[in-house]
Amino acid sequence: MPQPSSQLRALGALFTVAALAVGGRAGVSAGIVGGAEAQGTALIAAKALVCEYEGTQVVDNAVLLMKDGKIQAVGRQGELQIPEGFEVIDLGAAWLAPGMVGLHCHVGTPNPFFPNDINDTVYLTNPGLRASASTVASNRLLERSFRGGVTSVLFIPGSGSNMGGQGVLIKTGPGGYEQNEIRNPGSLKLAQAGNPERWTIGPGRTFMNWNTRNTFRRGIAYAKRWEAWREDKGAKPEHDPQLEVFQALYEKRAQVSTHTQIYQVVLMTITMVRQELGLDVFIDHGSFDGYRAAPLAQELGVPAILGPRAIIRSYDGFLETDGKIMGMAAEYQRGGHTNIGFNTDSPIIPQEELFLQAAIGVRYGMDDSNLEQIRGLTIIPATTAGIGDRVGSLEVGKDADILVVTGDPADPRTQVQMVFVDGKRIHDGEVDRP
């Protein structure tokens, strides 16, 4: 059984103090078993936060083996044998954790004047636009992201129109676009209210819902025509760049990421996109009184990736009630929701401060007794985005995207000592510190 997170944070604070006492991090020693050329790497740590979606959460006195960019094994010291020829890195009192996953990122193409400029609102729905065409891999803001422990992000268009276009899932580490791409399309960005009202003629919510539904229906019909052709049940359709993404959505190879907030709009997200149209969708923001839709979201399997607004005043439609301050994550939990993650809407909140969103969630009432805080930064968003088979936990066969930290990764007192992406050390706090 996982330890209560209050214990994790207390231990993390002790490890941080110990690390500072020896010059910034716990002692690290390395060697190769058998003295031969390294065939893989073994990390030895005080604790590994495994964060399986269902299953093991914590391994104490941990050994993690990685080779060829993948995790080979995770177990306890004395029980898991380190193969001959593996480089051994003894991290002392440090912990291991999965790289964090951010599902609302606008800093994939940094512009020094307009860092959040992916808002080509030609039409009210623009499903054919692609954020991947504007992605600048390894840019300075993504570099800051991985130094803060965020190793995978969903880079998406803005919310100036109801469909801003297609997002792309990328890793934040150094390298070119092809090396860092996880999946393209990563999502279809939907924004149902809050910003699109300012598009051209100032459409109201009724027209936006009608037009959005109409675009979805045309897209799904397009995907079905291609499905019929592949099954020799119809003529080959003509390619339509505006509707291509709906093949991925219809076949469950991508999700709809939805800028949605207040109860009425969150409810429309769930009932239109998931219940009526049958597409995979997740709540992205979900703020104000959006938590009132949590029971239905849980029932229909719609995850909630909350932020950057982490706290709210007691709210009823458009009117503040008693002014009580509430934590959004806690309110979704009270509604029975269990698939809760966090986002920063970077650069609104810097991408590297994703951990802080989870910390605030717990500070304002989120139950963290089963590592919900860490899971909301790792395996929950990874599973939500359909990439939980690659990232989000320290499981055999997954990408070796690993953090070496001095304690609970969501504790602001914790330091990120090292970052591995695909098994390569891309950040070392002692070497890379300014």
Q: Could you explain how this protein is built, in words?
A:
This protein is an alpha/beta fold and 434 residues long. The chain has two domains: 5-98 and 409-432, Urease, subunit C, domain 1 (Roll), CATH 2.30.40.10; 100-390, TIM Barrel (Alpha-Beta Barrel). 26% of the residues lie in helices and 27% in strands. The protein has twelve helices and 19 strands. The protein has helices at 5-21, 140-147, 177-180, 205-230, 245-250, 263-276, 294-299, 328-334, 354-363, 372-375, 379-384, 429-432, and strands at 29-32, 40-49, 58-67, 70-76, 86-90, 95-98, 100-105, 150-155, 163-171, 181-191, 255-260, 281-285, 304-306, 311-316, 319-327, 340-342, 402-405, 416-421, 424-428. The strands form three sheets. Strands 1, 2, 3, 4, 5, 6, 17, 18 and 19 form a nine-stranded mixed sheet that branches.
Give the SSE map:
Layout: H1 5-21, E1 29-32, E2 40-49, E3 58-67, E4 70-76, E5 86-90, E6 95-98, E7 100-105, H2 140-147, E8 150-155, E9 163-171, H3 177-180, E10 181-191, H4 205-230, H5 245-250, E11 255-260, H6 263-276, E12 281-285, H7 294-299, E13 304-306, E14 311-316, E15 319-327, H8 328-334, E16 340-342, H9 354-363, H10 372-375, H11 379-384, E17 402-405, E18 416-421, E19 424-428, H12 429-432
Parallel strand pairs: 2-5, 2-6, 7-8, 10-11, 11-12, 12-13, 13-16
Antiparallel strand pairs: 1-5, 2-3, 3-4, 6-17, 8-9, 9-10, 14-15, 17-18, 18-19
